[in-house]
Backbone:
């Protein structure tokens, strides 16, 4: 039984054709992978299925019945749920409040809602606590809330847009079990991914998009291997994550010194519990850890975006502990945050405006921005970092995930910082995107920049780091030399264990 049938979908944006006659057929009771490089049109095609966009041409059928969605609510009513690349939850609301938000629940008692959510979570193995507020949750937990939200609306078709990009390997495995349970229940899951191993482990069939077209339809995943996938996606496979070859010596005097950093959450719980670290010129210091162990508040506090309860941040010999984010930036501290949308970029502003958000002082005198200089600057960024944009004055929100990240990283390093904090910089990027961003980090280190690389991708940390720190429950619990350490030793430290448990 074919549950979802998209035929000949065309979707054009000013200056870009996102979908050029794409097809996708998904059978009920299966997990179906949608693959393709950054900008291939995956999210756009899913937005058509989810009622966000109306296609310029082509048809959408569910269970053999043609649909005409003019808004997301139409798709939801027809049983289509979507979990976006960037979550859309309200941080100060509880899990339960977010799950029911916008659904007709006025007549249902709160306790009934919470117990219904708990039942649903139990049925599909979605571990979560309905009473907790979103800001307290790790990325993995937030994602489970998004899935619950769709299940609450009785989604028979669930679209997951790069769901494991934000997950640890363990959480990704758990998601694999969850999607498996939903498929066994007769639902259809569409799983966008860039990772071959999880596609093979979690999915039944795969459809590959390239340049907005379907280049392989409903291929059994057993027929996919790395060469085949690379060839279908981009026409060639690119090797990334080989250990970097260092070309410059690590300097002596630290460019970043963080001492006894402490950050408490609103309940007084220490989310960063006394962190000391230094980063030297040309050094890449990696931070590994399961999501939600303090990496994000640590980075935010170093950048000055949140207030530390204790501790100091020194760049070179300049104490910035009391300085606002802009002063830290001016002193040579650049930050590529984990949240591209919101903290990093302003989705409603256009490419030029986003490109100059950091540099507007340099681009004009007084409060007025020199428009020509701003445009030139944005065009340089777009060109140097190979950002695919349709129009420079169209809103940022239209860029694909990979292109957003290129623009963000480019903007942060264009000022030649002394130290760069990069949080999950390659999350959700395709093979070429990962290689491009990792290449930029390596180049920056070679030119003398000290880099604090926070990542949940162990391969990346092993490939790039000179030293590897592990965070667990707000503390740096271990330090490894990536040349000699093993994955399992680091994994054990991430889980809060001791190195000797690794054997
Ligand atoms: N609202 C929009 N306005 C303008 N251009 C858009 C819009 N949405 C998408 N595009 C463009 O359409 C193309 C396809 O984008 P899409 O987001 O569908 O790619 P993707 O395959 O999901 O990529 P990624 O893996 O990076 O998430 C890109 O060139 C993108 O910049
Ligand atoms: Mg996308």
Residues:
């Amino acid at each position: 039984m074919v549950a979802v049938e998209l035929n000949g979908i065309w979707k054009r944006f000013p200056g870009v054709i996102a979908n050029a006659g794409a097809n996708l057929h998904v059978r009920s009771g299966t997990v179906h992978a949608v693959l393709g490089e950054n900008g291939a049109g995956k999210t756009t095609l899913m937005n058509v299925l989810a009622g966000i966009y109306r296609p310029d041409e082509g048809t959408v059928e569910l269970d053999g019945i043609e649909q005409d969605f003019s808004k997301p609510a139409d798709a939801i009513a027809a049983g289509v749920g979507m979990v976006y690349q960037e979550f859309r939850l309200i941080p100060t609301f509880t899990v339960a409040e977010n799950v029911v938000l916008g659904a007709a629940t006025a007549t249902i008692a709160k306790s009934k809602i919470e117990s219904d959510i708990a039942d649903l979570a139990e049925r599909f193995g979605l571990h979560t606590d309905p009473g907790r507020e979103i800001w307290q949750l790790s990325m993995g937990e937030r994602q489970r809330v998004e899935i619950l939200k769709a299940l609450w609306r009785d989604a028979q078709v669930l679209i997951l847009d790069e769901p494991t990009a934000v997950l640890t390997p363990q959480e990704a495995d758990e998601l694999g079990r969850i999607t498996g349970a939903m498929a066994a229940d007769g639902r259809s899951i569409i799983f966008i991914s860039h990772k071959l191993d999880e596609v093979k482990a979690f999915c039944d069939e795969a459809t590959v998009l390239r340049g907005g077209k379907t280049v392989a339809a409903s291929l059994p995943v057993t027929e996919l291997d790395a060469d085949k996938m690379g060839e279908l996606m981009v026409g060639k496979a690119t090797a990334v994550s080989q250990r970097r070859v260092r070309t410059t010596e690590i300097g002596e005097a630290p460019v970043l010194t963080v001492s006894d950093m402490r950050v408490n959450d609103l309940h007084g719980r220490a989310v960063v519990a006394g962190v000391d670290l230094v980063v030297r010129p040309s050094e890449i210091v990696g931070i590994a850890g399961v999501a939600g162990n303090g990496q994000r508040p640590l980075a935010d506090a170093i950048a000055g975006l949140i207030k530390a309860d204790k501790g100091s941040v020194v760049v070179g010999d300049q104490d910035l502990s009391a300085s606002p984010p802009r002063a830290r930036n001016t002193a040579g501290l650049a930050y590529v945050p984990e949240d591209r949308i919101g903290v990093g970029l302003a989705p409603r502003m256009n490419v030029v405006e986003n490109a100059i958000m950091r540099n507007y002082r340099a681009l004009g005198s007084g409060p007025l921005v020199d428009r020509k200089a701003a445009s030139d600057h944005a065009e340089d960024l777009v060109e140097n970092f190979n950002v695919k944009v349709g129009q420079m004055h169209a809103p940022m929100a239209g860029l694909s995930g990979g292109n957003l990240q290129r623009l963000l990283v480019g903007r942060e390093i264009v000022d030649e910082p002394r130290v760069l904090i990069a949080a999950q910089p390659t999350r959700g990027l395709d093979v070429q995107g990962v290689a491009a961003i990792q290449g930029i980090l390596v180049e920056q280190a070679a030119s003398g920049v000290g880099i604090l690389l926070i990542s949940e991708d162990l391969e990346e940390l092993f490939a790039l780091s000179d030293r590897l720190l592990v965070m667990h429950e707000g503390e740096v619990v271990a330090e490894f030399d990536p040349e000699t350490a093993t994955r399992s030793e680091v994994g054990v430290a991430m889980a809060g264990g001791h190195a000797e448990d690794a054997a």
